Amino acid sequence: MPNWNPRSPVVPRNASGKLFEAFLDFHRANGHVWYLFERFAMEVIERGFRHYSADAVMHRVRWETSMSTKSTDGLKINNNHVAWYARTFRETWPEYGDLFQMRSSPREVAA
Fold it and tell me: Which end of the chain has fewer beta carbons closer than 10 Å to its terminal beta carbon, N or C?
């Protein structure tokens, strides 16, 4: 386990739109998803990766959340949220801002 201290997520400030609002609603209701995403991203960094897939990190989050419950329904994490978790990671951990490659989003307004 990497030696890291979890940080409060810094959600992108210059964002808008229905997908972003849906992410915010999900994020507020499922704070543990951020903790897991952050933890697994930090494990990737600790292993020496300079670049990695946010999708791969989120798939591990999905696996962990589905294995930790007795229900086979599991937690449904919309694929649209992955990019916002990657952007949140970039804002929260600017020193690792290039870990996830991101396409520009038309919903991110230039500051």
Answer: C
